[in-house]
Design goal:
Blueprint lengths: L9 H4 L59 H17 L18 H8 L5 H15 L8 H8 L23 E7 L2 E9 L4 E3 L2 E2 H4 L3 H7 L1 H5 L6 E8 L3 H19 L4 H6 L34 E6 L10 E6 L6 E5 L12 H6 L3 E8 L8 E7 L8 E7 L1
Parallel strand pairs: 3-5
Antiparallel strand pairs: 1-2, 2-5, 3-4, 6-9, 6-10, 7-8, 7-11, 8-9, 10-11
């Protein structure tokens, strides 16, 4: 009798393997085969007859200059053109600036009229510097392209015709020299003498109280050891003592070179020949001076003094008035009608005349919103500058 296996046969659990499916490949919708039925007809670009007629409505205006959309297109084109010429011919041999051809370039105002654009002086200075560098190229090998490009910047004058008239010693033995510094000007007459100095008809000690200014005025004579050989008679005007003293230095040096031209190298080494162009820089808005900024304050003062025009007691309904100080930050303040304690100068007539028609009130912080308006002048009590600022005060 056959023995039966209590467990199912392993053959009954074996499942047939499924057939392997091919991986789906992405379908390509492009082909390299040219289909004549779908392709567009070829356009013959060799002949103009096959081209479609131009559509004027779809035409686009192309600027003639790439700098068209800038604020100064003509100036920008001129500057870029000169820079390109400098890069192209910068390797050519040059001459020293003293031997270069003398050229009178256009001024800023003349160039503005030429291009019709508001060109700044600092921007036009860049053009002039490039022109001076190009003008140093040797005249024998100057390219025609470069010569034509520089021609539009030249003035229609003969620079060699302008000759400076040499100063001479007059029949009385006087030599005249004019010097300037800042806003001061000096006219100096130099004659052989014993070293006497008169400025505006007075002694130099009466005009210049500082020793430094006296030495600056006669520095040209001291540097050349000519203090006791010439008399100086000068007229000065404008500016302050420092500017007038340095203007005398330049005027004395020019007059001394008329008497002795051989002293020019010594005077140049002493710094008496060159005109000093430095001036005081102007004050800027929002600053204390040209560049000095006001001190930064982290916390404002606790109180504010408000100067209100005088009003009779009938205008004040109570001991305390609610006002609003319409500042930039919409700060609300409260004013007490109690006056501030009198200062030691209150009894002075001059002090009383300044405060005539006004009352002083101490301001306290509060939150009030009241109608009506009145102009007042407020200043911070604890501020170091104590500068008053004009503000609007509204009273209930």
């Amino acid at each position: 009798m056959p023995i039966r296996w209590p467990y199912p046969s392993p053959q009954c659990r074996v499942r047939p393997a499924r057939p392997r499916q091919k991986a789906l490949m992405p379908r390509s919708f492009t082909t390299t085969v040219l289909r004549p039925a779908i392709a567009a007809p070829q356009v013959g670009f060799s002949s103009q007859e096959n081209l479609p007629p131009p559509n004027v409505q779809n035409a686009r205006v192309i600027p003639a200059s790439p700098s068209y959309f800038s604020g100064r297109p003509d100036f920008t084109d001129n500057l870029l053109n000169l820079q390109a010429l400098l890069r192209k011919y910068q390797t050519l041999p040059t001459v020293t600036p003293g031997r270069a051809p003398r050229v009178a370039w256009r001024t800023v105002s003349q160039y503005r009229l030429l291009v019709g654009e508001p060109v700044r002086a600092s921007k036009y200075h860049q053009v002039v510097e490039i022109l001076k560098r190009l003008n140093q190229i040797h005249p024998a090998i100057m390219p025609t392209e470069l010569h034509q490009a520089m021609q539009i910047y030249k003035r229609d004058v003969n620079p060699y015709a302008v000759v400076k008239q040499p100063s001479i010693v007059d029949e009385d033995g006087r030599a005249c020299g004019i010097g300037r510094r800042k806003s001061s000007s000096a006219k100096v007459y130099l004659v052989p003498g014993e070293g006497e100095v008169l400025v505006n008809g007075k002694s130099i000690t009466n005009i210049f109280g500082r020793i430094h200014d006296r030495e600056s005025a006669l520095w040209a004579l001291k540097a050349t050891n000519r203090v006791d050989k010439y008399n100086v008679w000068a007229l000065v005007s404008g500016g302050g003592t420092t500017g007038q003293a340095e203007a005398l230095t330049l005027g004395t040096a020019k007059a001394l070179m008329v008497h002795e031209p051989d002293l020019k190298p010594a005077l140049r080494r002493a710094g008496c020949v060159t005109r000093d162009p430095r001036r005081v820089e102007r004050k800027k808005p929002g600053k204390l001076k040209a560049r000095k900024m006001p001190a930064w304050v982290k916390r404002a003062g606790r109180g504010i003094a408000v100067f209100v025009p005088y009003l009779s007691d009938a205008h004040f309904p109570g001991p305390k008035l609610d006002i609003r100080l319409c500042a930039t930050n919409e700060q609300h303040l409260k004013v007490s009608s109690e006056p501030l304690p009198a200062s030691p100068r209150t009894d002075d007539k001059a002090a009383n005349s300044k405060l005539l028609g006004r009352r002083i009130y101490r301001v306290h912080r509060g939150l009030s919103l009241t109608p009506g308006g009145l102009d007042a002048c407020s200043s911070h009590l604890t501020s170091s500058s104590r500068k008053a600022s004009r503000k609007r005060v509204e009273i209930e």
